[in-house]
């Protein structure tokens, strides 16, 4: 979670001209106050985070603070609350129509629970953004999580809320943190079908991932008819990422971003809030994938064959974090076999997809076989 990945992304997006496109605004968010944070977090947890931020040596394991995943640091509350402020501000702008799309690459902290930190995440900015839209009158918000890890915090916070559909594509919980996100997690009482989990086998690459996405996400979203789409674009599904076992390319991740944006255009009158998330290949992957995200949200997708600007490469080389990439592509095609072309019951990827379709499609009036 080194902040250098954010600095590199913004520098690359600026060098590519994305931040200077017509209609693009870059804003500094305010720090969310306790009233806003308490819409998705317990007051005692907020106070524990504030206390932890005054003494980096402090630990409070009852709140998940001071662990290897969430070490305490000075200013912990203020930094984390400002991330929430950014996502909520963008969410409100999209919902009210003052902006068609909003992106907070610092956000996407999807593991934070109502009363505990987890998995590098202190406050759940995504949940706060969704809640802000609900409080403003939204009746159906869809959340799509493409991080390699299950979006467990967002799912847990809205598990019993029939107004929020959470969809997560992630590596199988049998092989990766946080150990949740099985297909039979489908929503609480009165909200059945509003949690959709696609647990992918280790080794899944572009073709399998995109096949799974196309086989589940568009049909469910079309049946559910969201008024706004919120997405999390952790890029730790890349083959070069050190913390997981999927094998996507930047090209596959770009294709996923395009697909999410197209669904927002088709189903939500374009209302789309996107966030960052995980991603630990700090120079090679995160800046390219999230620059693609920013460009797509700005309505000006970057050609994958575009050379990475020389000035950015020179700067990245000074950081001693690995060789900087040469192009905005990994050279992959990002194509996939459509589900409609046939289901292979012996294939592990297809087994995973069918498990999800069987668990949730009937709850939306859909036939899992087609």
From TrEMBL:
It comes from the Bacteria. Residues 2-295 form the Histone deacetylase domain. It comes from Phytoactinopolyspora alkaliphila. Belongs to the histone deacetylase family. Pathway: Ketone degradation; acetoin degradation. This is Acetoin utilization protein AcuC. Gene3D superfamilies: Histone deacetylase domain (3.40.800.20). InterPro entries: AcuC, HDACs, His_deacetylse_dom, His_deacetylse_dom_sf, Ureohydrolase_dom_sf.
């Amino acid at each position: 979670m080194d902040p250098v990945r954010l600095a590199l992304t913004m520098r690359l997006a600026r060098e590519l001209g994305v931040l200077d496109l017509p209609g693009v605004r870059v804003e500094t968010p305010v720090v969310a106050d306790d009233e806003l944070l308490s819409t998705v977090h317990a007051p005692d947890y907020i106070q524990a985070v504030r206390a932890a931020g005054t003494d980096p040596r402090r630990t409070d394991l009852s709140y998940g603070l001071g662990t290897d995943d969430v070490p305490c640091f000075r200013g912990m509350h203020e930094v984390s609350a400002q991330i929430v402020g950014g996502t909520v501000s963008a969410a409100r702008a999209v919902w009210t129509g003052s902006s068609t799309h909003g992106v907070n690459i610092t956000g996407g902290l999807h593991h934070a629970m109502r009363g505990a930190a987890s998995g590098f995440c202190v406050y759940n900015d995504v949940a706060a953004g969704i809640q802000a839209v609900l409080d403003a009158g939204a009746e159906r918000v869809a959340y799509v999580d493409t991080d390699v890890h299950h979006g467990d915090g967002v799912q847990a916070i809205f598990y019993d809320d029939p107004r929020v559909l959470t969809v997560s594509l992630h590596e199988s919980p049998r092989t990766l943190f946080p150990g949740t996100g099985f297909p039979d997690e489908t929503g609480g009482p009165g909200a059945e079908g509003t949690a959709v989990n696609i647990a992918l086998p280790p080794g899944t690459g572009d073709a399998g991932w995109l096949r799974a996405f196309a086989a589940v996400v568009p049909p469910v979203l079309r049946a559910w008819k969201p008024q706004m789409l919120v997405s999390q674009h952790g890029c730790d599904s890349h083959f070069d990422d050190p913390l997981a076992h999927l094998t996507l390319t930047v090209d596959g991740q770009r294709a996923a971003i395009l697909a999410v944006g197209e669904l927002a255009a088709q189903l939500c009158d374009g209302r789309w809030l996107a966030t960052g998330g995980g991603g630990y290949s700090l120079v090679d992957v995160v800046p390219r994938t999230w620059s693609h995200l920013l460009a797509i949200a700005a309505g000006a997708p970057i050609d994958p064959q575009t050379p990475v600007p020389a000035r950015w490469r020179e700067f990245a080389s000074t950081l001693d974090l690995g060789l900087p990439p040469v192009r905005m592509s990994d050279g992959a095609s990002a194509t996939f076999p459509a589900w409609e072309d046939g289901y292979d019951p012996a294939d592990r990827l297809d087994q995973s997809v069918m498990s999800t379709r069987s668990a949730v499609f009937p709850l939306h009036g859909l036939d899992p076989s087609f």
